[in-house]
Amino acid sequence: MAEEDKIKTTFITMWGTFCYEVMPFGLKNAGATYQRAMVTLFHDMMHKEIEVYVDDMIAKSKEGEDHLVNLKRLFDRLKKYKLRLNSAKCTFGVKSRKLLGFVVSENGIEVELDKVKAIVELPLPLTVREVRSFL
After folding, report:
1. How far is CA 50 from the centre of its chain?
2. Is 55 within 8 Å of 34 (Cβ atoms)?
3. What is the 8-class DSSP label of residue 102?
4. Beta bridge pairs of residue 12
5. Annotated domain spans of the chain
6. Which residue has the higher pLDDT, 134 or 117?
7. What Rg do the C-alpha atoms of the chain give, in angstroms?
8. Strands (E), the chain
9. Using CA atoms, how far apart are residues 50 and 35, in angstroms rounded to an integer?
């Protein structure tokens, strides 16, 4: 967080007056600011070797040997900018993964079936009245 912006996060408790050293995610623009930072740090890798959306990252490759190279580049970049991953949320070596309500795999990006189950199982309207009520 910029030094001049730290004062804007000041809060008072019974133990004293404090301000944040880093941007808390509760701030209105924190998500957009973080995404902009990720795009800045990983711009040359995005849409080729990795995908980044806020705090979700996917390292991808067509060949297994390339995947290790891509992971190494990603880890080197994370280390360079002193970013850390939550190991409990990391998964390695999978061919598909749920991300933001979609399934990302070697086939591309597909809708997660659980998310559209209600729509798929909806009975077909049989009368004009049912069509109108649906619309």
Report:
1. 11
2. yes
3. E
4. 17
5. 27-93, 94-134
6. 117
7. 22
8. 11-13, 16-18, 50-53, 56-59, 96-99, 102-105, 108-111
9. 14
Query: Which one-letter DSSP state was computed for residue 46?
Result: B
Q: Are 53 and 32 in contact (CB under 8 A)?
A: no
β-pair partners for 98: 103
- CA dist 112 and 50 (Å) reads 21
Helices (H) and strands (E) in the chain, counts: 5, 7
One-letter identity of residue 15: W
- Structure confidence by residue, pLDDT tens digits, 19-54: 998 888 778 888 888 899 999 999 999 999 998 887
Q: Could you identify the residue written with the tokens 């949320």?
A: 89
